[in-house]
Amino acid sequence: MLVALVDTLKQLRYQIAHLEDDTLATEYPELDNFIHQVGLTVAESKNDLVFLYQFLYVYGRKSEATFNRFRNELERFCLWSWLVAEKSVFDLKRDDIEAYVDFMVEPDSAWLSNSVQWRYKDEQGIRRLNTNWRPFINKENIASQQTLAAMFTALNVFYKFAILEEKTFANFVPVVKKNSPYLVVQSQIKIPDTLSDIQWEYVFGVTRDLCEQQPDLERNLFTLACLKGLYLRISELSERPQWSPVMSHFWQDNDGFWFLRIMGKGNKLRDVTLSEDFISYLKRYRLYRGLPALPRVDEAEPLVHKIRGKGGMTVRQIRRLVQQSFDLAKQSLLQDGFKDDAEQLEAATAHWLRHTGATHDAQTRPLKHLSEDLGHAKIATTDQIYIQTNIKERAKSGIKRKV
Fold it and tell me: Model pTM?
């Protein structure tokens, strides 16, 4: 039976303590039994797990999203190493890593689930395993370019960390990645995923129009305004262990300009400029919540509030708000005869809103200003994603050439 090796980020320190004290069976009986069974074939499997926990603890301190991403990739890698290759992850060679990549492309059907499943649940003080959990979700294209890239990144970072910790002295991942037949070299022209003008008009407009009948949709409207109008990542709006976005993070300088201080990737703070249009929606949202029109410096109210309970919202909860607005827009698009736009909206994610706002504003704003509001470390990143100056110039110079 396949067993989830890692619980949630909050539970990780308990799992580490149980492994160190050899008391895993008291809280994780199925996992303890699994490790003992695997240990009969791979003697170093428990040491592998200890190191995996150590790695995830270090990287999980950055953000829960980083923890989840690395957990999912490395958990199934360890399971494959023990159950298929029957080796410690630190005994794997180049050809083993290549075999794992082949497995990623076509995993065994027993490793697939048709939906996202929870891993462990409390039952009278014991964390009980969900027997329906599997390492992979069954999709038409499991090993997309994005999935393979995420896998290679996770393995590379893991082995680099292991070398620093003197757990191993070899990292075969870069050479396997370089020669992988499954990775496609990206085109020079890579246009970010964005909503069309009509799709954005419906997503925002339908949500706004329905607020009169469903006042709670004001929260959706404000979220959409933040993600598109301020180019925010969804994680930057959410409640995190080291950062809680609150209303006092809005601030005004001596010249009357408004900013929002947020924590972005790599725990870097930045101040995003607010437009006059956004401020009108900020006032609207605050009045709906029974707050003064503009924030005060001492306000501890969460930026995006929960209808029930206290505190801010998680990434998953905010994503659900965005999806609700997408679904409402799709219904209206279909009713109005825009079938193609409705179908294309099926693939949209919350991150498309950031790309949509930045792509639109790239036509009018100075590149440096846009780059700083986006939180890019280099202007070249902004240019590459949203401007693509060289590509446009190349297209202009070539348009008149003769056949």
Answer: 0.66
